[in-house]
User: Fold this.
Amino acid sequence: MGISERKKKILAAVVDEYVRTAEPVGSKSIAANAGLGCSSATIRNELAELVSLGYLEQPHTSAGRIPTPMGYRLYVNELMQKQKLSLEETEDINRRMNQKLRELDDTIGDISRLASQVTNYPALALTTRTAVTIKRFDLIYVDANTFIIVALLSDNTVKNKLVKLPVSVDQKLVQRLSALFNSGFTNITEEAVTPLLINSTERAADDTMGVTSVIAAFVIETLSSAVAPSAFVSGENRLLNQPEFRDPDKAHKLMGYLSGGGYILPSEESLDEAGEIKVLIGPENVAEELKDSSVVIATYDAGDNTRGMIGVIGPTRMDYSTVAAKLSILAAGLSRRLGGGEAPPEGMHNKLIIKGDRENE
Amino acid sequence: MGISERKKKILAAVVDEYVRTAEPVGSKSIAANAGLGCSSATIRNELAELVSLGYLEQPHTSAGRIPTPMGYRLYVNELMQKQKLSLEETEDINRRMNQKLRELDDTIGDISRLASQVTNYPALALTTRTAVTIKRFDLIYVDANTFIIVALLSDNTVKNKLVKLPVSVDQKLVQRLSALFNSGFTNITEEAVTPLLINSTERAADDTMGVTSVIAAFVIETLSSAVAPSAFVSGENRLLNQPEFRDPDKAHKLMGYLSGGGYILPSEESLDEAGEIKVLIGPENVAEELKDSSVVIATYDAGDNTRGMIGVIGPTRMDYSTVAAKLSILAAGLSRRLGGGEAPPEGMHNKLIIKGDRENE
DNA sequence: ATTAGCACTCGAAAGGAAAGAGTGCCAACA
DNA sequence: TGTTGGCACTCTTTCCTTTCGAGTGCTAAT
Assistant:
């Protein structure tokens, strides 16, 4: 199976150099820089073999080599040296996360922005929740036409809504409804909110003005939007940093896809264990628009059945190791802050577990 | 003073054509299309004069003419025929607004996205509030370590926060604090939340565990973020539709500026009366990055001391009249929905009041 | 005042030559 | 057998020149 050690070194050198320069890399520069003691002619022979093995390709005869997706895959799985960020970088990321997260509730937008800033690629953040329920209701009576619904969800976020009624409603009714909803509508999922339940509540509360249905609508709305995966893409413009997107049409196409909330993630169920990093290279992506881009995704644990992902999108020629390291820090930070549970201490460089498609194993 | 009627017609023809094609327009095509009965030679003479008057310019000798910012200004102020959108278009916009706004609280992001979709230019939305206060507090006791702060603001939005304490706190204390905050912290602005006030409240509540300061922090945070102007830019990628931004560097620069929340708006106090449309052409913009772009801004009234703006950014060669018409509908819709007050009925095409710099009057 | 005609200008597009990077292969070598 | 220097070859990139054409400015005629 495997290929010779030297071939691997050469492949790694090609990838590193290509990532850095975005230019096809020639035998000469490898001989000069990669520090294996042999001449360019030898390298040429090896390169030719790597091409026929499918790890590299040539844009045209008499140009240098660039990695194929298969080449990147091997690089990511085996070759790339796990990037240790400097302590300053790590601290910087953590500090910025602290600033942003002070008030983090559902502002995954901030996370996404942060990831984009830190990596200098477009980034996306998304969360999927399963089975969110309401833990507790409170109805706050404000005045005869107005009350506030407050709901504490099972994921410990709080939703509210100010309700203005066209009719007056008396405080007693609000209290009755508050009690009824607390007993009848807590700890149930959206599907369990049936017209039957609503009707019987309405009758029990002796509500002749339709207040019950207003509250029920809020419940449904809250539960369904809480469960709906929410996504946020930001920093699309950073795509234009990359030489491969200097063609405005290409850039536009991908950016349009991204900001359309285009979906990227492999598929819902492949949200892996928190802490893992997943790399999808070029054609490994499902979406047509991403076929020649790569996506690096980190999964974090946001507690209570909530999994989140942060990821970045870039050209296949991407600085996988740095990006993976940075995302890993972000994901660990998020797990620590949101997961509620026991989490690795802040300062620690956490181990990267890189995982990708299985096709090369 | 003004220039001859025919010159105006010619100028309008140049702008219209240039907006459509993005190519310098020559005397011949004007003679053919503008329908004033004279030959291209005559047009040429007129064009030459328009150039020397400063309304047009030539990229180079022997090219057609393109409008200068001054030319656009005249066009916007006097020449452009107010676009009447078709009924379908109007309805479409209103319908989409209805969908989005159902749950509009502070999701100006949605508005911005909508504006961008509708106009096909990048769009921004922003709101400035002045003097927001808290109308009413409720502290909801959840368990010994947990309570929820609910605040109803003067602009009728509700903010909340779930507070988890490291220590147990008894229900009585929560009630006392609730009452104290309701009397002491309502109807005051951020500046009035002094350490003195906080201290005295803490003492009055007999709070030895620092709960008071947690709530006070929430108050400060809430008031300051409510007053902070919030902005949202979206659809940056649509910039790439425009031929003048095919140069990725140019595009990147502007997009970076935009998504950096770069600020565009002329200046805070120039938020004009709701219903007005403001056009800033090229160098009329203050920001260096916008010097060769144009901005069209509509102001709407969001009720209770809140003014909002929605605007779009595009090249100076912009379809001002359509954009103005569309923004006008959006702004009217927002005023109607958010302003609470009396507003023009939905179906009505509202009159455009276009306002720009005064320099040409 | 308008128009037809014409020489002129200047950019954009097309063609071609030269430069340069990098390869593939061969013959020599350890 | 694996490695190396050398060299001819290929293909792209760049630059220069030429050509083409749109559009002008001017002039003389109406």
The two ends of chain A are 10 Å apart (CA to CA). The mean pLDDT of chain A is 86. The CA atoms of residues 234 and 333 of chain A lie 19 Å apart.
